Amino acid sequence: MKVLITGASGVLGSAVREAFKSTPHQVLALSNTRTGDGLVPLDLANTQEVDKVLTEFNPNWVIHCAAERRPDVAEKNPEGVQKLNVDVSGHLASLAKSLKYTLVYVSTDYVFDGTSPPYTPSARTNPLQLYGRTKRDGEQAVLSVNGAKAIVLRVPVLYGPAPKNSDSAVNILLDVVQDQSGKQYKMDHYATRYPTNVVDIANFLVRLSDFKQSTAIPPILHYSAAEPFTKYEICLVFAKILNLPHGHIVPDSEAPKGDSATTRPRDCQLYTKETEDLGVEGGLGLTLFEEWWSEYLKK
Ligand SMILES: NC(=O)c1ccc[n+]([C@@H]2O[C@H](COP(=O)([O-])OP(=O)(O)OC[C@H]3O[C@@H](n4cnc5c(N)ncnc54)[C@H](OP(=O)(O)O)[C@@H]3O)[C@@H](O)[C@H]2O)c1
Question: Which pTM value belongs to this model?
Answer without folding.
Answer: 0.97
